[in-house]
Amino acid sequence: MKAGITLPELAKKIEANRTAKADYVAPARQMRLTTANQLALDGIGEFTVTDHTHSQLAEKLAIPIGYYNRMRTEAPDLLAANVNHWFQKQPEKRHMVRTRSGNARAFLSDRYSRIDHEEIADAVLPILIGEEDLEITSCELTENRMYIKVVTPKITGEVKVGDEVQSGLVISNSEIGLGAVSVRPMVYRLVCKNGMISGSDRDGALHAAHIGAQATKSETVYQMLSDETLRQDDKVILMKVRDVTKAMLRGDAFRKTLDRMREAAGEPITTKTPEKTVEVLAKKTGLFENERSSVLQWLLRDGDLTRYGLVNAITRASQDIADYDRATSLEVLGSRILDMPKSEWRELAEAA
């Protein structure tokens, strides 16, 4: 598992970002994109548009992303004209613009429900800090998401003799439209400090989308205050986050996953060329070349040519990736391989 930062460091970053954030809702007629890569809001000011926000502008305005990026690179004046034209086609349609430190970091629907990192932290940290024999093994606050990864050493088991794993969970959130509030089970392997994150709802995971009631209507741009009273549906989500976190700490999902891991340890990779297994895996899951090489390296190095061995190779390879978001996605990929139907698994195991 990638180390990330400590819990105090996470709290410090969350607090610094809290004071730097401002959110606005505006009708399209009071927005415009400039040729200098600024999103202007009438009466408020101009904000530098991030790469992520450009992708959301393209999606919301139905401009093909390839053409959008070409205009952005080669003809910024044409891009501004296109974006502003489509703003004026639906002048009363309202959007939420999330900003921080002078940057427009997200361009969202006015139905986007703001459940921010500080609210998630306030909901779960008292539970985690109050729990005995619990380790917060990794935290991070990236441009895209917040992560809190927790292990409960008192809930443990062996997949094979001497191969001990422990129960854990991952709490994550995105403030910019890149994912739901989620609480998911995690299995932590002691021998190599790998973490495998479940992506399956059947394990009791919580995925709560940032969709709520429409923001208050206004004819002009207005700022959404950070201390506004939470809507009732937001309160319900935070209550669910607390409840699911408590349930995950009991380890019910862990015991089910442990059984699946034990079964996977008996499912061999039968091909004479494991390289082919990893090649097919990369094609099916979109692994980059460096990730594919790392997975193969760890698979051959550990010498465990089973489904369980491939899961471990993937989660171990995640530690070699610099980007924390991408590393976490490989921890989830390990779970996908574990849960893969037998027919799909055979495609990997028998690849030639």
Could you outline the blueprint of secondary structure elements for this entry?
Elements: H1 7-20, E1 21-27, E2 31-33, E3 38-41, E4 45-49, H2 51-60, H3 65-74, H4 76-89, E5 94-100, E6 103-109, H5 117-129, E7 135-141, E8 146-160, E9 163-173, E10 181-189, E11 194-197, E12 206-208, E13 222-224, H6 232-249, H7 252-264, H8 274-285, H9 289-302, H10 307-317, H11 324-339, H12 342-349
Parallel strand pairs: 4-6
Antiparallel strand pairs: 1-5, 1-13, 2-3, 3-4, 5-6, 7-8, 8-9, 9-10, 10-11, 10-12
Keywords:
single chain, 352 residues, alpha+beta, 7-stranded mixed β-sheet
The end-to-end distance, rounded to whole angstroms, is 31 Å
Runs with pLDDT <50, length 5+?
none
In quaternary terms, these chains amount to: single chain
Average pLDDT confidence is 90
Structural description of this entry:
With 352 residues, this protein is of the alpha+beta class. It has three domains: 19-109, no CATH class; 115-211 and 225-251, no CATH class; 265-349, no CATH class. Helix content is 43%, strand content 24%. The chain is built from twelve helices and 13 strands. The protein has a seven-stranded mixed sheet with strand order 2-3-4-6-5-1-13. A hairpin with a 3-residue loop joins strand 3 and strand 4 (45-49). Helix 3 packs across helix 4, helix 9 crosses helix 10 (307-317) and helix 10 runs antiparallel to helix 11.
Briefly say what this structure is.
The protein is of the alpha+beta class and 352 residues long. The protein folds into three domains: 19-109, no CATH class; 115-211 and 225-251, no CATH class; 265-349, no CATH class.
